[in-house]
Structure to design on (303 residues):
RNA sequence: GGUGUCGUAGCUCAGUUGGUAGAGCAACGGACUGAAAAUCCGUGUGUCACUGGUUCAAUUCCAGUCGACACCA
């Protein structure tokens, strides 16, 4: 296999494990830049609740895809894939190594393996299908998909409205079956990919999550969420740390309860992330304290 | 001190007219190609407070003990 000499070093792991610091240290060793793959740190209005890198950290290494969007913008994985590839193209002009760090598995995989190219559905179609779901329930969506694409119906998680809605909107938009258009193979990339997973023993990770949530409150999470109250219906704000504070503002729960809920929901999110990263054996795992081990592992790049 | 109610899963509580028990939440596991910090699926983990008694059989009935709460002194 041809070796391009260009490397994308992916640093993935559950939330709060310490990806930011490791990414910065590795980026400095390679004198390169960091691409964030964190689907909530994209939004400029969401800072405290997403634990974005702080000003000091951002000053040490150039970060991309942090706060480049507004919560009012439309965005999706495919756009991310294309934008990152474009950016990598220019970064690899100057660097042999680029770091991509984040916790959004789907977004990371879209960059590493690609995602099929589908036309965007018209907003009216999305609204129409959503309306059917709300009025007639999931069974109606199941019936529609069975009609349009029985092959996908046979394999889809048919209790998951999001999956059904997506398949239906693709069928309607393209006039072809969703299943016919899904490829099973990865896109070729003209750079090498090295995947590093960061993890900690469960109790330690959960402890860090608890401390970080407490810190978010100290840093003013409630204020940040209050300022976003008018936009609570936006998808970007359907996010751990924001939903719970909305409930507190609504006086449905106490602040103490909201904080506990955020911690609980963040722990479950971390578990889901680990499940995603462990789907394949592509990651080599380290603890965040093993910077030296990670560095020596990455020395394979220098050969 | 007396009377009453209660004691069941990590938590809140159902339930068994006597045949060793189940919901929600939590926890744990998983799925996931354009909302992904989203969305969805699966799993019960238990000395039914303790000790005796009645019974073929007690978590269930009876007695006592302990604990919690309420009321009365």
């Amino acid at each position: 296999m041809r070796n391009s000499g260009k490397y994308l070093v992916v640093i993935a792991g559950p939330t709060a494990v310490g990806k930011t610091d490791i990414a910065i240290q590795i980026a400095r060793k390679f004198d390169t830049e960091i691409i964030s793959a964190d689907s909530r740190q994209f939004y400029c209005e969401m800072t405290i609740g997403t634990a974005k890198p702080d000003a000091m950290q951002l000053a040490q290494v150039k970060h991309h895809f942090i706060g480049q969007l507004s919560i009012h913008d439309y965005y999706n994985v495919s756009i991310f894939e294309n934008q990152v590839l474009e950016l990598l193209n220019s970064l690899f002009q100057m660097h042999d190594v680029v770091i991509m760090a984040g916790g959004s598995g789907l977004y990371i995989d879209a960059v590493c393996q690609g995602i099929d190219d589908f036309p965007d559905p018209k907003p009216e179609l999305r609204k129409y299908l959503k309306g059917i779901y709300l009025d007639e329930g999931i069974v109606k969506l199941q019936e529609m998909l069975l009609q349009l694409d029985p092959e996908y119906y046979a394999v889809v998680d048919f209790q998951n409205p999001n999956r059904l809605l997506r398949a239906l909107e693709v069928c309607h938009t393209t006039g072809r079956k969703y299943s016919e258009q899904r490829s099973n193979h990865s896109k070729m990339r003209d750079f090498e990919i090295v995947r590093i997973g960061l993890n900690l023993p469960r109790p330690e990770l959960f402890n860090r999550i608890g401390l970080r949530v407490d810190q978010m409150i100290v840093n003013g999470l409630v204020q940040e969420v209050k300022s976003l109250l008018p936009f609570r219906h936006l998808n970007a704000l359907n996010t751990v740390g924001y939903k719970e504070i909305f409930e507190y503002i609504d006086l449905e729960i106490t602040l103490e309860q909201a904080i506990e809920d955020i911690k609980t929901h963040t722990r479950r999110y971390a578990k889901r992330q680990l499940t995603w990263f462990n789907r394949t054996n592509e990651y080599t795992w380290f603890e965040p304290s093993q910077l030296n081990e990670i560095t020596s592992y990455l020395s394979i790049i220098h050969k």
The CA atoms of residues 286 and 294 of chain A lie 7 Å apart.
